[in-house]
Write the structure tokens for this entry.
Amino acid sequence: MANNNNNIIFTPFLPPKKKPDRDSEWRKLKDKSRNRINIGEAFTRWRDLKEEKSMPTDAEVALFLLDRLAAPPPQAAAPTPSPEDIIVNIDCLLQLFQRCEQCRRESVIQTQGDRTCLSVTQHCQSCNHLRTWASNVSSVQTHRGNGEEPQNTQVAEMQVALPSEDTDGALPSEDTDGALELTGSLQMEVTVDQPPRPGGSGTSLVREKKEGNKGAEENKKVTEVVLDSETDSAQSQEENGLSSQENEGGEERKGKSLGVWPFATEEEYQVTAAILKRFGEGIGKDLHQKLLQRGRTHRNWLEEWWLDAAYLELRYPSQLNVNFGGPAPYLEHCWPPTEGVQLQRNSISMWHTLQYWDLLRTERLDPHKNGNVVLDMDQFRMLFCTCKVPGVTKDTIINYFKTESEGPCPSHVVVMCKGRFFSFDAVCDGHILTPPELLRQLTYVKQCCEGEPAGDGVAALTSEERTRWVKAREYLIGIDPANKTLLETIQSSLFVVSLDDAKPYATAENYTPVSLEVLIGDPTIHWGDKSYNSIADGTFGSNCDGSETVRPMPLPEELVFTVDDRVRSDIAHAKQQYFETTQDLQVVCYAFTSFGKAAIKQRKLHPDTFIQLALQLAYYRQHGRSGSCYETAMTRRFYHGRTETMRPCTLEAQNWCRIMLNPVASAEAKRKALLLAFNKHNKLMAEAQNGKGFDRHLLGLYLIAKEEGLPMPDLFTDPLYSKRIVASCSAWKSSPETDAETLFQNLVTSLHEMLHLATTAQL
């Protein structure tokens, strides 16, 4: 550790100690790669570098980065450091300030100074926490926000512990003992399956703009949403998630990008076109510049907004409106579902789920790819040990998951049966329980509940409207502090297993009864806020084979809440509201077995587009008009990317539906219209997947206006614009216009017609 007389020199690159032996370094990297989890920004940069440099193998990328580390470009007028000087990588230093130490949200970072005197100011816009660090003073001033006085903390040494949440996938050196020295331990670690984080929030090693003056001029002309060259060098357009909405080509092209024209009358068209023009020439420009500014200070400008707007701020019940569910694999070809094997089947399902958790926990999960494109894996951290907690105006998500390198992680499972809760550890002596051991634990839970009165059913409260649920939760905690501990046990569990007594009958062709039970089953055994619920219905009964050897381990512990009359009343109200809503929902879940994606691919058509257009035709056949709907486009090729919206109901799809239902239309006319609809759909999907969709961009403009208290632009209150938000594929028994059974039959007809049309076209 350096003494107080040393100079501190801040540099974008760490000076090499010696040029590494390329072959030996590569062998070391290959060995290390076997134990890396593929989560974080590093993989996006690794992939982009590989594409940018046209490097076919990971080995070439790793060696290229080693060369960059070994021979950094010379720094102009840079003082030659002495052996006693402390050399600090600025990018690595800024990693320590990327997330707020209070709420863990991304913060705005500002730096001042030069190579020998640097200060960093971190401001969290979520909780208003302010922290200032300076290299030339002996204390750090930490502002707690909300008017509190700054607190001085003495800094004895230049040694900083790097929080695991700030690594963005980059792992610390293996030879450190918890604390990392700025002189070397914060260097990037180059591995194959866990590529380096070369740029942090500053300089990027993998983004090099190739456009000359001509390219820059074209970008400026087309978008006003593409970052300029200075910003692009720090955070690229794609990494920030900023869409590239094309504004040239007239107002009609602008309007089509909203996905509303298939539903517009001539009068509505004229009104919305005028609103669009005013928006594009006026407030829209200002809002977009504010959005660009946000993109310069957030690695993903949309991430927090989307989570809040799409999920956490919603006040209606999550069970039917947010959560999704469906049947698990039945294995009917080798293990048909019968009475008496519910627990055996569920123990095997649990064991496989736990094996997947272990892959994440031990950082051995291979990265997902779309072709040769490596996808962001950050969302996998939220699969286990994650729960949503209700709030008065906005919910929060609590994630307890940690990899082995990050520290201890909860390993218990919660089992719910007849309104009661049980918990047991899924790991014994460092090893995951075997299927027979899991079976013993589940059997104990089942036996405890057989012939006994049902529990209070506290889980039903999670099906309530969110504000009512948070009030009931606060009261539940208030009557007994032990209830809070029980809630945290459920929240931090790996996942929840529901043992259901219902016996829905299902076949290989009809999964409707099972789907209904999963979606609208007993609310007292579904914890609606948990990231993952495994539901074992009573079709499989309960039986136990005790012949297998199991290790001695604690039996499941029952979690008993303290309740009173008010809590029981809240539970009864939640159940009543739940059942009134679920009784109106119509669900069909059939297996289409006439043909599959192989037959579609033989016709040189994309299976996803095929299904989406078949849905459009089925809806048009049933209702005589197009339906407003959307398809999710995956954006995981970007940093913390999730989804973009793609609008399948295009003018081309609408025109094709009309021609298909025209009895005098020729097969050739139908075929041409189909190809036009296919091409348009594929084009829009490719744009959305590549960060050039328009829905999330418009959402950003709306939210930036709302966040800054600006008057809401007319565009966002336009009735035609609002039409595009309505989903038209839900079926309710009380609605005379919706019939899921009829829609499925029309879908089957559409699928066969499309395949026939594609087949005759080939002939």
Notes: The first helix runs from residue 22 to 32. Residues 486 and 559 are 6 Å apart (CA to CA). The first strand starts at residue 8 and ends at 11.
